[in-house]
Design a protein that fits this description.
By secondary structure, the chain is of the alpha+beta class. Helices cover about 30% and strands about 20% of the residues. The longest helix is centred in the first third of the chain and has 23 residues. The termini are close together.
Length: about 150
């Protein structure tokens, strides 16, 4: 899920609708890039049996778009910069990480399963992968992700 903030001035700047349309197109392109990196489509649990208030997120390097962390959370957990791995925290503080919510509006158990699946699929750095994650994952965990149509936040 992408959330953008735009401040529009009264001095003849672009219309809200035009700016929103541009941002939505930019978000769709970023979503396609992220889906190709993950090899998965993102998922919205709204209206499903796994509906809840949790989400799964990934941290990607801004430059290379490489996924370096997978997590699950509620509220603003994905935005917190305090992390166990010092290099991860340093990158967050330096604004070198782009944050994407790849599974939204799901139960905590579904979020945990998806987090484990993605960690297992992408691999932790200590196991030869790229993730800063401390907890391991399981490739055989349930994969809930599928196509998500972008909606207004």
């Amino acid at each position: 899920m992408f959330v953008y903030g735009v401040m529009l001035t009264q001095d003849g700047g672009e219309s809200y609708q035009r700016v929103t349309a541009k941002l939505r197109e930019q978000a769709k392109e970023e979503l396609k890039t992220l889906e190709s990196i993950l090899g998965q489509s993102v998922f919205d649990g709204e209206g499903t049996s796994i509906r809840g208030d949790s989400y799964v997120y990934v941290h990607c390097l801004r430059d290379s778009k490489e996924v370096v962390y997978v997590g699950k959370g509620k509220n603003d957990r994905d935005q917190e910069v305090s992390r166990t791995v010092e290099e991860h925290e340093t990158l967050l503080k330096a604004n070198k990480i782009r944050i994407y919510r790849v599974m939204i509006n799901v139960s905590e158990s579904a979020a945990l399963e998806q987090e484990s699946y993605l960690i297992g699929m992408l691999g932790r750095a200590k196991d030869g992968g790229a993730l800063f994650n401390i907890q391991g994952g399981v490739r055989l965990a349930k994969n809930h992700m599928r196509k998500l149509d972008l909606v207004d936040a």
